Amino acid sequence: MTAANPLDAYPQSVRDEVARVRRVVADLHAELPRYELVVWTAGNVSQRVRNADVPDGSADLFVIKPSGVSYDDLTPESMVVCTLDGELLDGDRSPSSDTAAHAYTYQHMPHVGGVVHTHSTYATAWAARGEEIPCVLTMMADEFGGPVPVGPFAIIGDDSIGRGIVETLSGSRSPAVLMKSHGPFTIGADARAAVKAAVMCEEVARTVHISRQLGEPAPIEQAHIDSLYDRYQNVYGK
Amino acid sequence: MTAANPLDAYPQSVRDEVARVRRVVADLHAELPRYELVVWTAGNVSQRVRNADVPDGSADLFVIKPSGVSYDDLTPESMVVCTLDGELLDGDRSPSSDTAAHAYTYQHMPHVGGVVHTHSTYATAWAARGEEIPCVLTMMADEFGGPVPVGPFAIIGDDSIGRGIVETLSGSRSPAVLMKSHGPFTIGADARAAVKAAVMCEEVARTVHISRQLGEPAPIEQAHIDSLYDRYQNVYGK
Amino acid sequence: MTAANPLDAYPQSVRDEVARVRRVVADLHAELPRYELVVWTAGNVSQRVRNADVPDGSADLFVIKPSGVSYDDLTPESMVVCTLDGELLDGDRSPSSDTAAHAYTYQHMPHVGGVVHTHSTYATAWAARGEEIPCVLTMMADEFGGPVPVGPFAIIGDDSIGRGIVETLSGSRSPAVLMKSHGPFTIGADARAAVKAAVMCEEVARTVHISRQLGEPAPIEQAHIDSLYDRYQNVYGK
Amino acid sequence: MTAANPLDAYPQSVRDEVARVRRVVADLHAELPRYELVVWTAGNVSQRVRNADVPDGSADLFVIKPSGVSYDDLTPESMVVCTLDGELLDGDRSPSSDTAAHAYTYQHMPHVGGVVHTHSTYATAWAARGEEIPCVLTMMADEFGGPVPVGPFAIIGDDSIGRGIVETLSGSRSPAVLMKSHGPFTIGADARAAVKAAVMCEEVARTVHISRQLGEPAPIEQAHIDSLYDRYQNVYGK
């Protein structure tokens, strides 16, 4: 007799979506080394699986990378499934050591469908100084609608990283937060959007850093930032 | 009955050239990530298709990248065709959100056959400070004939980006302009020449930036710049 | 009659392990250019082969890269086997010119099973100033448990490089030492762990360098460093 | 009747060696983009073909890259053969626009068997300031035996670039010269050695640049530089 898989207690629609999202999340991990956002086994991507049977979201799941596995060895099968408490529900390995921060974010930000964490170089360099990235590029106004904010110093072991992410991003247009002395976390409607935010976060962190090395970038008026953000979020790609 | 393709109203020679240029433009997009000038779906390349039946150029077309498509998914078929008003003539997707700037440039600079836009890191870093790149390298004298100039701050939505490009480049030897707080646009006799200008623009932006980090690069006398530019444009490659 | 292979004097278990480790070490060399830690033929990885017949470790061997061979041409067969005196025991080529430093480390640090040496750019830049890398990132607390220390200036030809490595690392949690004016050496339980340390050493050298270019990174309290290090070494991955 | 190939006037041994060297030089060009020393069609590698019939070297030839050809299209057949006057002897295309500088170097430095020219970023950044790279790394002592010197400002069109190379390198241990406002030229016993020197030149230019961004690298005593250089040139790899 085989032990029952705890996923079997979930509706078929959830089980089907878990299977699909395992592949999505496995594939998206390849974008992290491709854009040079991670080295070795660092970094992780997750995506929420909504459970329509429990509309308040408390029975949602998410799919995330296992801990300490090389990017060359990430397959849909090796991804793990967790509840929103951050407990492992299905998978052969331990979930990423950042799982609690992902879980807290899904629990407290119901519109978030994807979360990404990296130690990408330039974003982490701003985080190490605890300094927000000022909005001095039109592409930054488009994507972030203002500066990329800094979250508090928090260490692993309780929910302080998750709280820092949620509190900082709840008051910001930015889908990225630079956790102090640590690195960026990004959110999105799904994992792909959160990966895009991680890529763009490093891009603006790098470009603004390099610009400031030889002087001060020109500020962009708030009205222009608002107008660019509004157009990009509401017109572009719709 | 199938709706008529508006391209059918154009001469056969134009339709044949559109087919050829779709492939040229699709292939050239691969050079942008290869030279690390773009991330995600940013950046775009276009090329003019001349309509010999209307010698004043007003019935020319151009082929450009569709909006928001990943670099892995760019095929000749996915490229879109626009009129010089920037209106979509043929294609399954919306044209790039920078199409109006390309269109304005083709309308007002009849010798221009290709346009490229990127947010390449070092060029954009100069653009963020609104600072031209001084001509302190012999390869820069060859390719740009002087500094790479800065264009005005302009936001998307009317023809102000296009006007900024045309006004800045009309008074310059440089095939590249750094649009303030935004990034570089480059022009050329065809799309390949504009891509080369985008690659060289980032190359000189990076090298001069790095040189200035530890001191001031030595100026090159204007007579030497003129002589290098003249040789390169008139002798080299002929 | 063929000359006897000196390896034949070793127990079968050692000969089997040598064969396995040749492949491990050859494969791990590919990680060095992949993470841009080396150019041309620079850099080397080695791994200890324990000889259970002589429990004090004095008859252990190690497998290392041959001297001056291109990364494209490294095969298990081309790896060479040395004694802990740094003498060639088996192999068609001379061992790496850094062999004496590897040998000294294995001789004097019995728990070390792998050694890596590179001239990775940012780590070497700190080494050239003779300046330790301060521990200002949570990932650095995890992996290094404090600053990455600097070892003495030492030149090739006697055991001064090996002594510098051993003396510096014996008093440190860090698996990496920046040998002054030279570059990083890293150690680990096996060659893979030492390669990981080399990758992480360059990662933190780069990120802290870039952070400091625009100001001073915030310090992390010693108690937090201790707590992060303890969790990472004792919980994570177990 | 086909026009006689001017190569037919040369001994069979020279014609055989030309065929071999065409492949060597074509293959070595791939190392330039691989190590990110060049973009687009910039950069060139050449190798001397000695003519044993004329021992004073005046009838030697060299094989070099054609002008303006993409790195993807370089084949042994597309390489061109020149006399030491820099005149095209055999080939379907024009020789590189830097051919005169290569020719002058072969004419005046009989021991030189290979020449490489790039605009690699960090080396060119030092060249733009007209500043030599100080010898502050043990790998630099090994390979260059001292600083990498700066050559005079010189523009294309006469033999002033070639003279600058020869005059600067004749008084130096370094196989690399930074031509002011232009970029590095390197020499070697053959093209492979000159490519290695180009790779190492950029490596030390980058590492010393980065080190100096946050302070002053420690000097290395002249006696240590001499000892490292002597060992590396006379022992290593022999």
UniProtKB/TrEMBL annotation, chains A, B, C, D:
EC number(s) per entry: 5.1.3.4
Record's keyword terms, sorted: Metal-binding, Zinc
Any Pfam family hit: Aldolase_II
Acyltransferase listed as a keyword: no
Record-linked InterPro entries: Aldolase_class_II_sugar_metab (IPR050197), Aldolase_II/adducin_N (IPR001303), Aldolase_II/adducin_N_sf (IPR036409)
Zinc as UniProt keyword: yes
PANTHER family: FUCULOSE PHOSPHATE ALDOLASE (PTHR22789), L-RIBULOSE-5-PHOSPHATE 4-EPIMERASE SGBE (PTHR22789:SF8)
Protein name, entry field: L-ribulose-5-phosphate 4-epimerase
Organism whose genome encodes this protein: Zhihengliuella salsuginis
